[in-house]
Amino acid sequence: MKRFLRILLAVILLLALWIVIDVNYPYKTNIKKFDYAEVARLDGEMWRSYYEKKKLKLFFQSSELMRKQFGVPFWRSQLMAYHAAKAAFTFKDGKNRSDYDKALPDLVKYYAAINDISDTSFDVKEAARLELEWWVIRRYRNEHPPAEWENCLARNAQTVYHLPAEKFVSFAHLRVLAMLMRDGKENSITENDWLQIHQTLEQAWKSFSDALQ
Questions:
Q1: 21-43 burial by CB neighbour count: b if 16+ within 10 A, else e?
Q2: 72, 143, 149, 176: least surrounded by Cβ within 10 Å?
């Protein structure tokens, strides 16, 4: 029993050391390079988990997305996914603007983590603000038409990647189109609908990837 406990303690210490190093060691990467098909797949799966209120599933999909899109190490991806998922469900449960603003601190932490590993820095607070803004105006769709959602998405990409928003017009349009496909079905969405949404998202993320090259 003592030997088992010593081995267990050693494993725990090594795991803790791995986590500390993984989360904190200096690491930079080019966030412009990613597999658009994988990112599109995960984006669509995360949408589905969000609307089906599967929080744990969304968390794991989000952490995988962090690794696929931004190339972050394993444990760092878990921390980023935590902030992204927490922000999403804080917003989802909100009823008014003051409730929605409670998601902003986690969005700032999420974008700060991306900024930390990016070889080109960006305005973290502006990126987080624009992310939350398109969530909000989409909820108030009677006052804010889809063209405004597209503008918000393009400006967010401009902030993070330091490229003109015009380069992301096609991406933003296709991603919003996928959102409208989902919203149009609401509670009657089928597997075929999700397939069409995935195909549209794949076109969107290919356009995004092309814009970055």
A1: ebbeeeeeeebbebebebbbbbb
A2: 143
